[in-house]
Design brief:
With 263 residues, the chain is an alpha/beta fold. The chain has one domain: TIM Barrel (Alpha-Beta Barrel), CATH 3.20.20.140. Helix content is 40%, strand content 16%. The chain is built from nine helices and eight strands. It has an eight-stranded parallel sheet with strand order 1-2-3-4-5-6-7-8.
Length: 263
């Protein structure tokens, strides 16, 4: 049994063949999936996808690249209502992204400040509702971890698509947070993440596809989908000298305890 903890099934890239994608996931042994939203409209779409399905849960939130879709603070009330839906397992995908240029009309400083404010509002909401969070980081590690540390002891986070070193992750892991690995671990040149995946303790990491992005080998260059989390699991198992079954069991147990509704 495999658990894809981060798959964007609400992406337009799955609009035409989602049923077949979910069938392939089941055939690959993927029995649980978390679908993170990118904004409020996408959150409503994701919730509709999960209706009547026991294998899907949703994370609701506004992605840092999409915070130009919200202003002020009134939007957090709509997010609060969405987050209380029974299919919601976490707040996400939220965080900071300094890689992409600010949208038209934004200066870099004000864009970063707006991202940070939206992140803090959503972290406070997570604390209020007792939900864990899915965090996005891209070239924003110092600022992101500084904000998250202010909430230590109040909530838990998973740093999704983790590509850093174990030394960078250790203080966060010690605080009870998790990291999650994508198909990058299977690449010919995976960077620091291969060593991190080989040394992190059981129970401190999860697996994901980040579909439709970052397809693992041997699917690199294709649209990623949840079934491919099996290939990521095999790559992690090889790095850790563990069996696929052991990695699948441990990461599924970790994910079931982290996300609401999977106990």
């Amino acid at each position: 049994m495999l658990f894809d903890t981060h798959t964007h099934l609400g992406s337009r890239q799955f609009d035409q063949d989602l049923s077949e994608v979910l069938q392939r996931a089941a055939a690959a042994g993927v029995s649980r999936m978390v679908v993170p939203a990118t904004d409020l409209q996408n959150a409503r779409k994701c919730l509709s996808l999960a209706e009547g399905r026991d294998d899907l849960r949703i994370a609701v939130g506004v992605h840092p690249c999409d915070v130009d879709s919200v202003t002020g603070e009134d939007w957090i009330h709509e997010l609060r209502a969405l987050a209380q839906e029974s299919k919601v397992a976490a707040i996400g995908e939220i965080g900071l992204d300094y890689f992409h240029a600010p949208p038209s009309g934004w200066e870099l400083a004000s864009w970063k400040a707006h991202q940070a404010r939206c992140l803090e509002l959503q972290l406070n909401l997570a604390v209020e509702l007792g939900l864990n969070v899915i965090l996005h980081n891209r070239e924003s590690w110092e600022d992101l971890t500084s904000i998250v540390r202010q909430f230590d002891g109040k909530l838990r986070a998973v740093f999704h698509c983790y590509t850093g070193t174990l030394a960078e992750a250790e203080p966060l892991l010690a605080a009870g947070h998790l990291i999650s690995f994508t198909g990058i671990v299977s690449f010919k040149n995976p960077g620091h993440v291969a060593k991190t995946a080989s040394h992190v303790h059981d129970g401190q990491f999860m697996l994901e596809t980040d579909a439709p992005y970052l397809a693992p080998m041997p699917h690199r260059g294709k649209r990623c989908e949840p079934a491919f989390v099996a290939d990521t699991a095999r790559a992690v198992a090889k790095l850790r000298n563990q069996s696929l079954e052991e990695v699948a069991k441990i990461t599924t147990q970790t994910a079931r305890s982290f996300f609401r509704g999977f106990e």
